[in-house]
Amino acid sequence: MSRIGNKPIAIPSGVQATVKGTEITVKGPKGELSQRFNPAITIKEEDGQLVLERPSDLRHHKAMHGLTRALLNNMVVGVSEGFEIRLRIAGTGYRAEVRDGELLLSLGFSHDVIVVPPPTVTFQVEDRGELIIIQSIDKQLVGQIAADIRKLRPPEPYKGKGIRYEGEQIRRKAGKAGKAGK
């Protein structure tokens, strides 16, 4: 039995959810999100909550029940509060800045890397260009953009230089031991 799928989703004040067949539209103070879901899962609005039901206890229906509920909850949280991911840049000469809404990264390449955000994503840079804050109402989009930026210069294990998620621990290696025997 899906425990996640059985939990109703509370709709906060200022958020509207519209169910039209398999398409759900959620509007809130931060924006609007719309998505189609599996037609096997029925979604109803009851007493200011969204309730999901599955047709049977087949494994596929259980999986879709929990997935649909998680995606729908992310939509509600996104339009009411929004999501953000923070990335830390470490390395001599590595820095970031926002110019005309675009993220300009100096990562030790022969050229600067420019990241153009989708319409719902905003970038902020703090701590003298060492902290990048990615914000949006779409959780999946925030995570994907953060992963794409991190992939430009992943943290390396010897000096720890690169782009990492804030709070991420990098396993460090010792490096060369030198000529110990002579």
Q: How would you sum up this structure in a few lines?
A:
With 182 residues, the protein is of the alpha+beta class. It has helices at 3-6, 59-80, 139-152; strands at 9-10, 16-20, 23-28, 31-36, 42-46, 49-53, 83-90, 95-99, 102-106, 113-115, 122-126, 131-136, 162-165.
Annotate the secondary structure layout.
Blueprint: H1 3-6, E1 9-10, E2 16-20, E3 23-28, E4 31-36, E5 42-46, E6 49-53, H2 59-80, E7 83-90, E8 95-99, E9 102-106, E10 113-115, E11 122-126, E12 131-136, H3 139-152, E13 162-165
Antiparallel strand pairs: 1-6, 2-3, 3-4, 5-6, 7-12, 7-13, 8-9, 9-10, 11-12
Q: What can you see in these coordinates?
A:
With 182 residues, the protein is an alpha+beta fold. The chain has two domains: 3-80, Ribosomal protein L6 (Outer Surface Protein A, domain 3, Alpha-Beta Complex), CATH 3.90.930; 83-165, Alpha-Beta Complex (Outer Surface Protein A, domain 3), CATH 3.90.930. Helices cover 22% and strands 36% of the residues. The chain contains three helices and 13 strands. It has helices at residues 3-6, 59-80, 139-152; strands spanning 9-10, 16-20, 23-28, 31-36, 42-46, 49-53, 83-90, 95-99, 102-106, 113-115, 122-126, 131-136, 162-165. The strands form four sheets. It has a four-stranded antiparallel beta sheet, with helices on one face. Strands 1-6-5 form a three-stranded antiparallel beta sheet. β11 and β12 (131-136) form a beta hairpin. The longest helix is centred in the middle third of the chain and has 22 residues, at 59-80. The mean pLDDT is 91.
